[in-house]
Batch of 4 targets.
Target 1
Amino acid sequence: MEYYERYWKKELEEKGFASKPPEWEECNLSRIMNLIKPHCFGKVLDIGCGDGFFTSQLNNLDTVKKVTGVDISKTAIQIAEKKFAEIDFVVAPVVELPFPNESYDFVSMIEIVEHILDIEQMFKEVNRILKPMGSVVITTTDFNLLKKIIIAIFFWEKYFYPTNPHIRFFTKQTLKESLNKTGFEVFKYKWNGSYAGIMPKGQIVLAKKIKTISL
């Protein structure tokens, strides 16, 4: 937990990749919001909400009844509460969410899964708090073959520097397998930006809870 306090205070070593919280680009925000709008409604939970910016975008949707943001960092939550006082924010780890079973219609996980050690427990917790047939949106990097080759040749030490916050790396297939194992079915997949249209920068996945998984 102390690590992410330093992360949000921007005190991490900057030799590697993603050592600071990302800044939103309008094209990226529009891409994600346009994809999730038909599926985001009712009670919504934004996991890994950080400073609350994306949480606030969800809160602006007419179909959303109530949105809550959760993050492991007290510093991030304090920033979010100051910026968006009308939204409820909670400090908690994703592997132990303080919410009742089947209490949310939609969950967002924007650039968070690559930060989590226990991927299976994380998705089991999301499964637990989602209502049957509820949906989750996930964005993360996409380790396709071409990207792996380029990183291996030119950017290995930067991308895998020991103090980097990214500790898990997903391909389209491994993310799908992780979700299937924990009771979800992927129903939409989209590149989250691209490098000259040749390969994706990241991936956006929408998955539906099709069965309950016991913890």
Target 2
Amino acid sequence: EPGLVRTDNGMLAIEATAAFEELPEPAVIVVPGGTGTRALLDDERLLAWLRGAHENSAWTTSVCTGSLLLGAAGILDGLRATTHWLELQTLARFGARPTEERVVFEGKVVTAAGVSSGIDMALALAGRIAGDTYAQAIQLLIEYDPQPPYDTGSPEKAPAEVVAFLRAGGVFG
């Protein structure tokens, strides 16, 4: 619905200027992830809109657990796709072929793993839409030059106790 939409903690808000039904043919669909996606997995209004909008979109994309919504809508059936590493098995339940890659292009469907891979996806998509020079200019403009303070950006690299902490509900449990 049109109006102010707040995050689950109420700290951030954006204004929706139209309802889903008023935007039946977007050129690019970006489905964000986060803890709120699980509550929408059975929202037939949203899933029906995703299915219909996907038919005419140039690109249908997701970041993090947003891919679960694409899966629930049937868009990922049989396709390789990614999501946050804690939800790869959930993604498989929706007919996708989960992969641990950071960004996966399957035709016009693009999925990104966790939050930071969303930037990788956005830059790769900008390159395909507007060309490499434009995408590189965006990367430079936002100073995207990752130099993480820890080398624990995937379960394979992180210490076992950190992985176990998150699997047990850690930060969000």
Target 3
Amino acid sequence: LKRIRTVVAIIAIGLALRRALYPWLLGSCGRNVIFGQNVVLRHPHKIHVGDNVVIDDNCLLDAKGESNRGIRIGSRVFVGRNTILSCKNGDIDIANGANIGFNCELFSASRVTVGQDVLMAAYSYVIGGDHDFSDATRSVLEQARTSTGVAIGEGAWLGAGAKILDGVTVGPHAVVGAGAVVRDDVPPYAIAVGMPARVVSTRTP
């Protein structure tokens, strides 16, 4: 019992220290923000966080870029453990009330926006960029990166393992099925499933 109390005390101290010190690193940080264990912040001066946000254990927030604004997380957002928010000279904007499940990745080489109250289930992948591979004589790494960006409308739901490719807009209140690979826009209130995803029905507003 004594050992358990010691462990609990250490965890509580770590949580308190992170809560006190991490905001000093960020571009801005609201009230009641909880940082889990092993959260990694890269280029933190370009990371802005609202109120009542939870960034769970082992998350990586990387706002890398020379001309980008970086990462902006609204209020009441939950970012699940092991999730990666990665900029390559792009921006990531997550609106109020969004819930990002564990083991997700949001990548942006231009702009990725996640609307208000979006639910993104575990292992979802939003890919706001691509590679030019038109020259077969050169490796993909030697060729340019391209990016149009991705927009997820408010109230949308991405099922577990959904992959949203560059250039796609998922409309407000749309549903993307688990494991779907979305390469074309999904209209508002539509339900899209499959690989590649196709619209199979529409929710009635």
Target 4
Amino acid sequence: MMWSFIQKSILMLSFRKADQADMMLYFEWANDVDVRKQSYQTSSISLEEHKEWFLKKINDSNSLMLLFENEAKVPVGQVRFQKENEKVYVIGISLAKEFRGKGLARTVLLMASDHFFTIFPGYIIYAYIKKTNAESVRSFTKAGFVFENTLMIKSSESVLYIKHKKNADS
């Protein structure tokens, strides 16, 4: 009998705050066909529109944009936290196409939310996800986010998952 083993490569990830030099990378990721399909704004984004939005967000004290890289400093994906009100930040994530389906979303979400809670311990993180996006639902669940309710957002049936500092270690 012959045995074969599949070795899963484990990437060492790090992150940093996004800066102006990352603008075109974020533009490319934002206009990825699969990313647009899962977004609430499904149409492509113009460069002018993106540039204005990106420069505003990296300088916004109510927004935290983190860029994740592997050990070779290759960009893997991004997470953005946007303040919604006095108790809540909303999280968004996207991974580069070549890193999807490798189980990295859970790790990225854990690292990002742990970092977020060191800065903003009194806040709750909300994740709004289209109900049809089963992979994101699974990733957020594995990262310790808890189902809160179902709702409609821009005519899309969606789910809300939340994370508090108390369940940040999940």
